[in-house]
Amino acid sequence: MTSPLLYQVLVIILAIISIILLTIRYKNKKLTTFSLFIIIIFWLIIISIGLFPEETTIVAHFFGLKRGFDLIFCVSIGFLAYIILRINLIMNKQNEELTKIIRKIAIENEETVEEED
Amino acid sequence: MNDYIKDTFLVVPAYNEENHVEKVLIDIANLGYNIILVNDGSSDNTLNIARQVQKKYPSQIHIVTHVLNRGLGAALKTGMTVALNHNAKYIITFDADGQHNFEDIAKVIKPLREKKADAVIGSRIFEDMPTTKHFANNVMNLLTHIFYGVKVKDSQSGLRAFSATAARKIDVVSAGYGVSSEFIKEIKDNNIVYDEVPITTIYTEETQHKGTNAIIGLKIMIKMIFDLFR
């Protein structure tokens, strides 16, 4: 068996650190079991791709793409687009909440002038 | 004075309108209407000028202030809420930049008074618009038609009139200029009977820089697309 390349070692270290940090968050009840599960699956996929990059070609062929790299590229673009959409929706929601607070303050502090007799 | 005038509240959203707000407030107040001025986080002298005018018309002018600028849509919603709190019978939205003609106020209330409609959109005459605005407003009309399924003559008009019943039903969430199309959507979704009345617009160099242009149009379109996921 050939010794692992530097990037493969780095990917594994990064994945292990991430999983440890997430487990701590889970223990502190800052993460749901479902989220932990999904994120661990995600990191396992990253480790698999890192250790066996040539295997991605098989999956790529299944989707009609020639190289594993093309598949990773497409999935990454889709993932980033999803993240942007999610962040945008969260920001919109927070903006609406902020507006509600500012509106409440505005209405409670309406300025009227008492008419002189 | 006609009875309806004291039951009519004009919602005037103002963001950095120190050059126009005094004239707009005085001209409306002299006609006898009530005014809700929404100072939308202005950083200039808009609020102080409005307070000075308010002293001259204490029973007619009410001022509310957003501590941070939240955009046209948010300001209109705040103003409409305050107007309803004052038991308004008719609510008019009126831009503070001096682009509307005061004689048009009576025109947009007329269908409400005659009970022909619960919402009235003041339609600007597109032929009088500068070319870029003409184009941008046509695109916005088309987008409003595509995304919200309503075909109106002027989807971006700032001069609108609502009965209290309609105003209670309308719930706009767009903070910025996208609110104009959203008003149309809300009118449709709530089955509010509406009318369109031609109005005149006063174009100055300053008013031409505000309102819908190509960039704002693009932003509104992106917002409409995101709204599909709401």
CATH architecture of chain B: Alpha-Beta Complex
> How many distinct beta strands of chain A?
0
Sheet bearing the most strands of chain B, described? 7 strands, mixed
Q: How are the strands of the largest sheet of chain B arranged?
A: 3-2-1-4-6-5-7
Report strand % of chain B.
15-25%
What descriptors fit this protein?
heterodimer; A: 117 residues; mainly alpha; 4 helices; B: 230 residues; alpha/beta; Spore Coat Polysaccharide Biosynthesis Protein SpsA, Chain A; seven-stranded mixed sheet; 10 helices; 7 strands
In brief:
The complex is a heterodimer of chains A (117) and B (230). By secondary structure, chain A is an all-alpha fold.
Secondary structure elements and their pairing?
The complex is a heterodimer of chains A (117) and B (230).
Chain A: H1 6-27, H2 33-51, H3 56-62, H4 68-108
Chain B: H1 3-6, E1 8-14, H2 21-30, E2 34-40, H3 46-56, E3 61-66, H4 72-85, E4 90-93, H5 103-113, E5 119-124, H6 131-148, E6 160-163, H7 164-169, H8 179-189, E7 194-199, H9 205-209, H10 214-227
Parallel strand pairs in B: 1-2, 1-4, 2-3, 5-7
Antiparallel strand pairs in B: 4-6, 5-6
Helix pairs in contact in B: 2-3, 6-8, 6-10
